[in-house]
């Protein structure tokens, strides 16, 4: 099953009270709540309020989009990890998105990689005990900036509770982007969906329908459930969400039909 949803950071300037009805009216099914503005760490009442508003609208909480990066002193990291887990629990999030450090894999020191790996493994084990999955942000400026480094990190952590997100790297054509997805597909839990081309220009999702048909076909063939979450829309405009969500649902339906 491919479950259509949205990342709340798509509309950073809107409060949850406005994002929830937008998502529901657009026919989406779940929301990844951002841990920077919408569900700030260390504010359990806010997380619980957001969960209730989400569920009352018939939507599910897909995940907590945290900004935990496994950096700083041991004490600083431990404090951040603690409030992140608490926020996810109060939010009712089945998954926490995390970032693998703050350095590109080619530039990261062995010490940085070892520290991030060790802390990520510990965090993944703690989250597992609370019934919460951990997913890596697939992004430049981290140890998951390339397929090879992402796979190495997943293998080094070696915990079944650790998955990865996927999104097309900036500037890749459809076939090159699909190659990166195929390489990590067995670890992928969640997809961030957007249409940027040729670099970071934000286009309607339909403008890269070839790419997303291929992505959803790959996921449908995997036989596993995935969340597919709109992350960026043209001009950050709330009024285009219904159109973008309709395109997303159509592409998902086409992939499901082809898989059958």
TrEMBL record:
Keyword Secreted: no
Gene3D superfamilies: Divalent-metal-dependent TIM barrel enzymes
This protein's UniProt keywords: Carbohydrate metabolism, Isomerase
Pfam families membership: AP_endonuc_2
Stretches assigned to the Xylose isomerase-like TIM barrel domain: 22-249
Coiled coil segments of this chain: none
One GO MF term: isomerase activity
Domain of life according to the entry: Bacteria
Protein name: Sugar phosphate isomerase/epimerase
């Amino acid at each position: 099953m491919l479950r259509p949803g949205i990342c709340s950071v798509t509309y950073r300037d809107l409060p949850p009270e406005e994002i929830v009805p937008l998502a529901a009216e657009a026919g989406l099914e779940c929301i990844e709540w951002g841990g920077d503005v919408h569900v700030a760490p260390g504010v359990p009442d806010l997380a619980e309020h957001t969960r209730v508003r989400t569920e009352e609208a018939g939507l599910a909480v897909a995940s907590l989009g945290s900004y935990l990066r496994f950096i700083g002193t041991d004490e600083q990291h431990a404090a951040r990890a603690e409030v992140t887990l608490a926020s996810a629990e109060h939010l009712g999030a089945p998954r926490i998105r995390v970032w693998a450090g703050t350095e590109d894999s080619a530039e990261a020191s062995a010490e940085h990689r070892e520290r991030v790996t060790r802390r990520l493994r510990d965090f993944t084990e703690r989250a597992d005990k609370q019934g919460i999955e951990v997913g890596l942000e697939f992004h430049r400026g981290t140890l998951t900036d390339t397929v090879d480094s992402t796979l190495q990190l997943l293998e080094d952590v070696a915990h079944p509770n650790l998955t990865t997100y996927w999104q097309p790297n900036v500037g890749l054509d459809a076939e090159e982007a699909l190659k990166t997805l195929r390489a990590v597909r067995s670890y992928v839990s969640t997809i961030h969906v957007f249409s940027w081309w040729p670099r970071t220009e934000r286009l309607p999702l339909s403008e890269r329908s070839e790419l997303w048909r291929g992505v959803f076909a790959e996921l449908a063939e995997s036989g596993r459930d995935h969340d597919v979450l709109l992350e960026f829309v043209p001009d950050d405009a709330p009024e285009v969400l219904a159109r973008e969500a309709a395109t997303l649902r159509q592409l998902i339906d086409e992939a499901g039909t082809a898989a059958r």
